[in-house]
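Re: Re: ligand-bound prediction request (bumping)

Still looking for help on this. To restate: I need the protein modeled with alpha-D-glucopyranose bound, output as structure tokens. Inputs repeated here so nobody has to scroll up.
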Amino acid sequence: MGAEADLLRRQVARFEAGHPGLRVELRPTPDSADRRHQLFVQWLAAFAPDPDVLQLDVIWVPEFAAAGWIAPLPDALASDTDQLPEALRSATWRGRRFAVPWFVDIGVLYWRTDLLPRPPATLSELHRRAVELRDEAGLRYGLVWQGARYEGLVTVFVEYLGACGGRVLDDAGRVVLDGPGGLCAFRLLREAIDSGAVPTEALAWREEPVRLAFQAGQAVFMRNWPYAAALLRDPKESRVADRFAVGTVPRERPGGRPTAALGGASLAVNARSDVPAAAFELVAFLTAPEQMAERARVLGHLPPRPSLYRGDHLAGAFDAPPEAVLARIRAARSRPVTPLYSELSRALQTHLHRLLSGQADPEEALDRAAAELRRILRRAGLGARPAAELQGG
Ligand code: GLC
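Reply:
Sorry for the wait, this slipped through. Here it is.
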């Protein structure tokens, strides 16, 4: 994206100015998490020595570390304590740190303040209001979210699942997806489409089409990441610049809670890099508090360093006081931390998408999804191992 690439270029130019003799080349990658994953796997599985520094989605670090594709952090970086525990957990594999958290993402609900003062208290009500307000206001869409068959759909699902009080794996690493919470979430997702609250177009949408629909004033509600807020506020690009607010995706029933999926990116160094020391220096520079605070102010990206939420480093960066944002991040829910994550996710994506597109009923889709997750864990010999092992320590 434009603003993000511009900021990175500026920061890299500052790094180069302070490191005569080092040149940094930026390589563009696809926006979509899955396409980026595919590209990285191609590079790394072929033992390419570059790119030297990799921007990894938080869910990939254990997989890449277990494959031997990324280098463990040198002591200076590995002993950095100003890190959010959840972000750190996803950057750690078998007790060693392999990546430095760069920014965190939490799933948020955007709504149109000219159409309703505050968002509904449950997901069912959210769906109902989406349809009513869409019709009253003559908009095209009620609620828009990421419904394409890719990682973003899993993050939407994690939020519905939390709202219903369900989980994918329990603390012992066993699949508990097909409990009552899972059924509630699968039913709700299907209802979102069947009731027309979420348009069928969304079954092909990733983050950007979702943002563009909301930004064009076509939707009452949107589920997306914080990056969208800075763009929605720009009156030159956005038709909703001064009439939207950001909150949490609501819960559904007692036992469930308002849930935000925890995402984000970490920086890691290619294990085959020819210049690992320089690569780690760049990682240290980009993840230093100054650069992170600037990312927050310019892009609205949430820094994974707790210290930045004290004082006025982040003044004006968010729509809420920094302590409130930090509390939301701390309450957000991680996806399973395991080298098998990509496989688990692909299985979920398939069954969730079949559910949404009407090819399977909620009960059938849920049974099949849970059975497939169990098969994946069993095949890897992790069927009944404790979570500590599944999660690398
Ligand atoms: C965002 C999140 C990432 C997530 C992806 C899904 O990029 O930071 O963690 O996997 O969206 O589309």
